[in-house]
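Q: Hi! First time doing this. I have a protein sequence and I read that you can turn it into a structure. Is that right? Here it is:
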Amino acid sequence: MNRTATVNLPLHGGKAPRWLFGRMVKMSSAITSAIVDEYGQNEFIKRISNPYWFQALSCVLSYDWHSSGTTTVTCGALKEALKNKNIGLFIAGGKGKTSRKTPTEIEKFSENTGLSTLKIERMKYSSKMSAKVDSAVLQDNYNLYHHCFFFTEKGKWSVVQQGMNNLNNYARRYHWLSDSFKSFVDSPQNAVCCDLREDKALNMSANESRKARKTSVDIIKDNPKHLEKYFKPSVQRTLFNFNTHAIEFTMPPHHEISDMANINLKTLQKAYEIQPKNYEELVAIKGVGPKTVRSLALISSLVYGDEVSWEDPVKYSFAHGGKDRIPYPVDKQLMDSSTETLRNAIRQSRMGQKDKTNALKKLSSFY
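A: Yes, that's right. Below is the predicted 3D structure, encoded as structure tokens:
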């Protein structure tokens, strides 16, 4: 289970037109069936976690090649396409309020799969933790508003989620894959790809923050009662408490860690009573969010001298045209024809005529 990538996209408003979305659903249904039929369910889950493949899929579906809608509309079309298909693939969650239904939908879609209760609970936990990591453990100024959890009838999963930055009008997409890794909070990303790097991003999952993670847990287990002095404004001094008439101080407009006075001490006390064994267990506690993570990081750094990473963990094709007429208007007839070609190939391959599917693989040369 690792975060495979991060992608930055400009925020675009509006909705996909009905005439296009219907075709996107049909096309995504045909493509998904072709992949599952030829390579299996796990391959589809793996490809969804690849940011380049996901971006290419969006372009094949004729959606904007670089907008925030690439994520939300493509996931929406895929979810609609799989709703009535019996191929062992499911998509839970979505945009806004729909994202909060993810745990319920995971349970609902798992009813006839034979998945054990333990595995279902593990998937629900994975959904929650991937969202917490990308909103609290990694604080890059992008607030999550979209979360889709893709999974198979065997319990393999992938997450595609997106956050919004109101300051630069960009969205950032995060991809996760249920592959082997040590922990959700210990360098979970395999590759983080995008075209826009943040100057400052608190990354408590980075290897450089390893000691700070341990100190954060130790602080909680040692009873947070003695931490009140760090959070109460009444006991904190500022530079202006001293005689500074001969000196002019100009402070930067941005400070990496803020809102220390607004930390919820009840949450810290609750965490103390639970006695988390490690940082992942600490982050998983309900109520432990960005402010708690940030505050414990500050204490670990300023009081105990532990290093905290502020490095943004990032590095960064058309077939049927684009909705915004770039690079050319959507060719409706060609899109419908391509969908029918895929459907026919699937039908023929299921009858034993694998040469039809093999021929389909060579279509890329014509494009």
